[in-house]
Specification:
CATH architecture: Up-down Bundle
CATH superfamily: TspO/MBR protein
Number of strands: 0
Structural class: mainly alpha
CATH topology: Ferritin
Oligomer: single chain
Strand content: under 5%
Largest sheet: none
Number of helices: 6
Length: 167
């Protein structure tokens, strides 16, 4: 019983690790560079993002635990559903370094479009395994849809500087 508690906490906390590292590494660039970008009127306030990601990462982490548990741990049945989850999580963690770190909006856009596909694939693969896990991912899919539209708009409205030009 104590061991299952540790698994529950581990799976639930895991998504936060990459999210925190992405924020920590890019925290100095966010207020300076990001604030200067042209953003649409519907762009959420910067203060909303940490709250939203805390809720979303907690939900997706717990959902992944439910799927892992229902499939009996690291079994061959878990390979595709948890593999898709892991791949989409890796792309989720890669977005901030592309966008904020490298300031490469085109790579960030490619990343988030691939992330969308993997997140949808994850949810579809989880549907037959655990309905609660699937429902826990729905807010994440909604937020990703908004984040994808926001990434597209920022990419289109802020042409990247040509190499060799300084700020």
């Amino acid at each position: 019983q104590g061991r299952m508690w540790a698994y529950t906490v581990g799976f639930t906390v895991l998504p936060h690790v990459g999210g925190f590292l992405g924020w920590f590494i890019n925290r100095k660039d966010i207020p300076v560079w990001y604030e200067k970008l042209k953003k649409p009127s519907w762009c959420p306030s910067r203060k909303i993002f940490p709250v939203a990601w805390t809720v979303l990462y907690t939900g997706m982490g717990y959902a992944s635990y439910l799927v892992w548990n229902d499939l009996g741990g690291c079994s061959s049945k878990a390979l595709i559903p948890l593999g898709l989850y892991g791949a989409q999580l890796a792309l989720n963690w890669a977005w901030p370094p592309f966008f904020f770190g490298a300031r490469n909006m085109k790579m960030a856009l490619i990343d988030i479009l691939c992330l969308d596909g993997l997140a949808i694939g994850t949810v579809c693969s989880w549907y037959r395994i655990n309905k609660v896990a699937t429902l826990l991912m729905v807010p994440y899919l909604g937020w990703l849809a908004m984040a994808t539209c926001l990434t597209i708009r920022i990419w289109k409205d802020n042409p990247e500087e040509k190499p060799g030009k300084s700020e």
